[in-house]
What we know:
With 749 residues, the protein is α+β, with helices and mostly antiparallel strands. The protein has five domains: 3-152, Galactose-binding domain-like (Jelly Rolls), CATH 2.60.120; 167-258, Immunoglobulin-like; 263-559, TIM Barrel (Alpha-Beta Barrel); 571-640, Immunoglobulin-like (Sandwich); 652-744, no CATH class. Helices cover 21% and strands 31% of the residues. The strands form twelve sheets. An eight-stranded parallel sheet has the order 33-32-31-30-29-28-27-34, with helices on one face. A six-stranded antiparallel sheet has the order 3-2-4-10-7-8, with no helix packed on it. Helix 3 (298-311) runs parallel beside helix 4 and helix 11 (676-689) runs antiparallel to helix 15. The termini are far apart. The mean pLDDT is 94.
Amino acid sequence: MRKVLSFNDKWAFSKETKQFPQALPKNWVWVNLPHTWNDIDGMDGGNDYYRGTCLYAKTVDKAEFLPSADKYFIEIQGANSSADLYVNGEHIAHHDGGYSTWRADVTRQFKRVSEPLVVIAVDNTANETVYPQLADFTFYGGLYRDVNIICTDESHFDLEFYGGPGIKVTPKIEDKNADVEIEVFVKNPQDDMKLVYTVKKACGCVVEEKTLPVTETKTNVTISNVHLWHGVKDPYLYTAEVKLMSGNTEVDCVKTKFGCRTFRIDREEGFLLNGEYYPLRGVSRHQDRWGKGNALSKEDHIEDIELICEMGANTIRLAHYQHDQFFYDLCDEKGLVIWAEIPYISKHMPTARENTITQMKELLAQNYNHPSIVVWGLSNEITMQGSTPDLVENHVILNDLCHEWDPTRLTTIACVSMTDMNDPYVKIPDVVAYNHYFGWYGGDTSMNGPWMDKFHAANPDIPIGMSEYGCEALNWHTSDPKQGDYTEEYQAYYHEELIKQLFTRKYIWATHVWNMFDFGADGRNEGGENGQNHKGLITIDRKYKKDSFYAYKAWLSDDPFVHICSKRYVDRVEDVTKVTVYSNQPEVELFANDVSLGKQTSDVHFFYFDVPNKGVTKLKAVVGDCTDYSEIRKVDEFNEAYLLKEKGAILNWFDVTEVEGMYSINDKLSDLNKNPQASAVFAEMMKQAMESKGEEGRSQMTAMMNGPMADMMGGFTVLRMSTVMGTMGAVFTKEILLSANEKLNKIKK
């Protein structure tokens, strides 16, 4: 009978040696799994986190640890990004792809010696054959998920087919009933063995049980008056269990939970679940945390799902790779609709096509049974450096693979904002979505909804969604928020505007905020805290919910609440200040030092009060039985602690000389482009910054700065654009920027 043994404790670890040990090293560092070697340097900025090969070693005391079994497998649930498994010095397996489960048969090696030595070499070195290699997040190295030893009989359910569970369940809804096809994959069966198929309700009651010959590895079970899986409203799950029996002895057993549901994505009606309009409004999620990197515990995953549910989201885009199976299980149980994808992202590599295929097969094989998943994501922003015939062909192969392996679900892609909506690759998947940052990376917030309308009108057969949108916020504050200031107030304003535009367009099949949580991006150098992307609605340590979190809660949650914004912005200079309140209730009353400032009603859940600012004012917002409190204080001069100061920045905006009536690098690109002299100064500055990129790199970056990208980048100031382009490899020095500013100071607007 199968036994799964945790193999997480006390591994010897080294990133200093490349010599494979012949015995368990005593002078290496001892670590427990999950583990990453980039838990600190992967989110502290500088884009200098360690990328290389590190070794993990552990012995197995068979007498104390292993039960007697015919077969032994090592299961590795996540080793980023490539790994080699050795037992007793013998190379057993190689795996490319850091986000999926893989297993290896180690029976012969384990049975040869009493204390077999397991060594796993994990490598996150940059290369051209394994995705991802270019992306705005840290590629943490390590054995960052569980490692297990699985013990089985010679006859067992398959463990080696792309890391899959050995059981496949396909429900088909017919009127009020469900026809459930159950298929299992048996290795080395004996002729006299039987398969016992059982389907159970959530309460444990048996729906049907049947015993069949071992050759009948596929059967159908009918569930009458089926209880549908209906998202967050009713995430009902059944269980399918199959036992491999020899007489009365259980040889092996596999089981999986599953849900019965239908869904459809319609160009006009958006997303429909079980025939009902069910707009998908939610977030994207990365799998890392402060001080832990991607080596998360089950408790971390549970906290994440609870925070997402508290906000009222009903969908998650699990970006940009396969996540932990435990998290998919949580999504099933909570009723969250999921977009699951592979890390085919940012940079198409012709030498890595096979890796996209393998990673997609693993994603499909390992996640087929999850009712929460409705779309398979083929790629993300893959045309960032342009579209090619090879890229298009790669997508056709992946799209066909998904439909062949799983005809029950749809395919999708996340297009980078400047992608031409007529690009052939946009027509490949069943549905599409775009990553738009109008109002943050250029443009302005008002451009988002109209762009979606334009795509919708131009593509009569393609459902459109918003796969990413967002802006960054840290603990900076202002009463006059502006694009690019990184204040909590601008982020709140941005999301208020995007909510009103996106949530009121029924045809948009899904919206996913980028991102639920701040996450590690070691190459980032902005916002005053390097090494992170701060677009999260919650900080990377999960300690602070930004105001924008509550903007979504006001629209999506049914639990009554009220929230006063800008609690960290206490000192204010103006005589009358605006105070914003969010609630999912229709009416809010605000009190200042116990004096009512009146009641307001709002059909968009956002309430704005003008509050006299004298001395210390204690604020209280009231909605029914719900209250929230805050405090403001009148000051004569603006508190400099609220002002963004870039850590390690080349220049801050307040360091730039401005001459009244003249241009400067604090002006927007769109304004510079109106003046030929100013535009020429900018072009020369870009040429200098791209000298290190070489001819090909300069051509790619020049192409990105033209066409649709130029429209979006027009909302950037020159200074802010230099920060963004710096993350793409352009080198802006203080001298280059100040020289350009000096020239611009001499040109009249």
